[in-house]
Amino acid sequence: MVSTIVVNDIHKRYGDVRAVDGVSFEVSSGEFFGILGPNGAGKTTTLEIVEGLRQADRGEVTVFGESPWPRNTALLPRIGVQLQASSFFERLTAREQIRTFASLYGVPAKQADSMLELVGLADKADTRNERLSGGQQQRLSIACALVHGPDLVFLDEPTSGLDPQARRNLWDVLREINAQGRTVVLTTHYLDEAEVLCDRVAIMDEGRILELGPPASLVRGLDAPTRVSVESGLITVDDARELDDGADVADDGVSLTIATRTPAKVLAALADRNALRGLTVRGATLEDVFLQLTGREFRE
Amino acid sequence: MTRLISLAGAIGKGFLRDRTAVFFTILFPLMFLLIFGGIFKDQTIAKSDVLQIGPVPVLDQLPPQAQAELSKVLEVTRTDDRADALEQVRKGDAEAAIEQQGDTVVLHYSAADQVKAGTIRGIVESLVQQGNLAAAGVSTPAISLDTQQVEDESLKTIQYITPGLLGWAVAVGAMFGAALTLVTWRQKKLLRRLRLSPVSTVTVIGARVGVSIGVALVQTAIFIGIALLPYFGLRLSDYWWMAIPLVIAGTLAFMSLGLLAGAWAKTPEAASAIANLIVLPMAFLSGSFFPIDAAPTWLRTLSNVFPLKHLNEAMLDVMVRGEGPVSVLPTIALLLGFAAIVGALAARLFRWDDV
Fold first, then answer.
1. Which of A80, A127, B50, B315 qualifies as a cystine partner to B163, CB 3.0-4.6 A?
2. Complex-level ipTM
């Protein structure tokens, strides 16, 4: 496989803060790659170095075999960047925005209009960006990043601040972009998002990559217990402990949770006692991986 | 080229849809033109009211022709109530009161309006002199004085305020346009977005400069168009069109100041404050609102650092004083030089990002 991005041991300091402290990874062509971590983990700085917006203090970056720094205008038409903030021209309609961005790349207006359809904004084409909702603005900014048909797309926390419905809609758009054969690099602080979308995930904290791999194998490698929850009051904590020797049981007054390594046995026993009301079964997630790696809860 | 045009189109649309910006760059200065042009419209033939207490032979015995001349500058009203007349002068209802006691003419005036008092005093003094000459039997004076205005006799206030206010309007439009674009684009990370597209910085700056020059030329057309209306009665001299290259050079100079403010400021509010802090004192000291000939020497010397002062002077020269096109070339060079130096300074302070 051809590596679209090669990052080799990059470092970046801001004063005393080591924003990026020895990060290396490769992204293959057509891959959906995620960089996951809490705020301040160094995700954005890493991305900015790869995009060519900042210079690394140390280490090498190549994108399509070329260095993105200093500003490499040969590379820029091949990459699309969606920025964290909604960076638009003021007081222009969605159609005017995307056509302006398209013209910067020499892309005809018709192709720009078709991008609005891809992100489901065709009916908002004449609405000024100030009057678009947060989700619509995010979709417009993704459309602006994609308008010139880049082979490599960078998305910096594309779903932050969106309601759950808007997030799911955006996920569909992102999957569609990747299905077209484009390489996608995404930063996020939502663990579920990385799990759902990414082929591989790099978990970052304090400027370093702690773990890198497909989400499923990261979770499996954790060997974490499965959490089985039912409504409180159906079964006492002591009775629950008897269902599986060594299981960790907790009751928060709303639901009773049994963390077990033999979920089939526990579920059968609960069924026998007719105590399945409000049942949920949850396997380990990236959240557990993060907790395991850092010893602290993942917080935004 | 298409990139430049489409960027300029985006900036231009953004400007036209920003009602506040359109108001402050076009309508607000225009309001000043309407107000000043209206207030001072008849200033050149404003008469002074003078009260005549009882008989004053110096006035009464003037030949009819001289009476008519006098009535062009003084509106003489007769009264017999001396106390009331003095009270009117004190209140400012009349500029002066005149009475004659025997061979002495007494002129009462108020110190509140010294300019008018001085004018009336001069007129009355000359009447007294004439009376003295007549009494001495001199019918043909040895020396006579004839005064004439050097400009076209129709020269009115509008001739002076149009170039000055236009200069101010151009300064406001160019400075605020450059400063606010730079700060808001940086704050909204649009600058960063443009840096990630294959468009050159020259194109981005060129688009902004193009829009600012366009706005300045529209301001010029509207200002001159309105001032030319018969009501205001602006009369342009032959080489008025030299105002166009002047306005363009001035726009570049003010844009460089705006870019400097925008490179330094972090928020649009701060950029506005800095731009205002420069543009208001500059407009006053450059004589945009009223002539500063009466200001202290040091202040007039200080005013030479402002590009607007030189722009205003040069615009007056070509628009109404009838100077030739070559006379303003040094000013154009000076404005372009100012733009280059301040623009280079702004480029040094330039940041793509806040951090």
1. B315
2. 0.80
